[in-house]
Amino acid sequence: MKELIDSFLDYLSVERALAKNTILAYRADLNLYLDFIDQRGIVVLSKATKNDIVEFMLFQKAQGVSPVSISRRLAAIRMFHRFLARERVLKNDPTTLIDSPKLWKKIPDTLSLNEVEALISQPDVRDRQGARDRAILETLYATGMRVSELSNLKTNNVNLDIGFLRCVGKGNKERIIPLGKKAIHSIKRYLEFSRPHFLKRKASESLFISRLGAKISRQSVWKLVKRYALAAKIKKSIKVHTLRHSFATHLLERGADLRSVQEMLGHSNISTTQIYTHIDKERLKTIHKMFHPRP
To answer: Which CATH number, 2.40.30.10, 1.10.443.10, 3.50.50.60, 1.10.10.10, labels domain 113-290?
Structure first.
């Protein structure tokens, strides 16, 4: 059955051009599914039924897996079975009558403007690594990029003269995102002060590199965000994605239109971007409660 997963993922990679991280997530999801039905004594996929898939979802729920993750796993299983039915590996698709679990939209955590300023001001720009880290934090907040997108940025993706960068997102889709003056200034300082020292006369296409001259990893960016959040004494649970959420929220709070924010975030569906309008409404309710004479 594992070989069938390989065939399916090859199809997603070649025919659907899905991002590498998406394919890795689908592999993990499908491995969990196959392990589950194997434990139920199902050794060939043709024996899996609708009930087995529902039981898998219920088991995931009992394990404390979030509805969003369960929904994604069901999507992977559904696509897998459809692919096998279309390729005539299986006669029937047991997922056709399964409804997706109802999801509630969790409002993402964001930082206040003061918290963003406190976080970004933590790196010591007199230090080469600190100058790089300040440029990374400024870029994340200025553009709302995903950590994988930042890690994969190349020097020729950035035009500091006109203040734009070209980002390659999910599904290899490109988008252009403006850069603010502070981000431009920080990137220029990093390029002049830090990057040549890290490269030590080596060559690299990557914009942000480690002290050893290699492309900076997503894990390194996660760690530096956590470290500076701790130094800034921010008590919220912060991930790299928190800066992306804050970017979108702060734009909408100041009157940016939803379509523009969607474009900058690289969301294929505007309904994904609309989650940030809920944050704005919560903020309005808070302000109303604080200042209205009859709250």
So the answer is: 1.10.443.10
The whole-angstrom separation of Cα 79 and Cα 168 is 25
Domain locations in the chain as residue ranges: 2-86, 113-290
- pLDDT tens-digit readout, 116-135: 999 999 999 999 999 999 99
Q: Indicate the average pLDDT of the chain.
A: 87
Query: Which CATH number fits the domain 2-86, given the four candidates 3.40.50.10890, 1.10.150.130, 1.10.10.60, 1.20.140.10?
Result: 1.10.150.130
Residues with a known catalytic role: 146, 170, 241, 244, 267, 276
pLDDT: which is higher, 26 or 287: 26
pLDDT category at 13 given cuts 50, 70, 90 is: confident
Which of 107, 207, 195, 120 minimizes the C-alpha distance to 155? Answer: 207
Contact 123, 131 (CB under 8 A): yes
CA dist 254 and 135 (Å) reads 24
- How many Å apart are CA 18 and CA 11, to the nearest integer? 9
Does 114 have pLDDT greater than 90? yes
Q: Which residues contact 237 (CB under 8 A, 6 or more apart)?
A: 109
User: CB under 8 Å to 80, separation ≥6 — which residues?
Assistant: 4, 5, 8, 30, 33
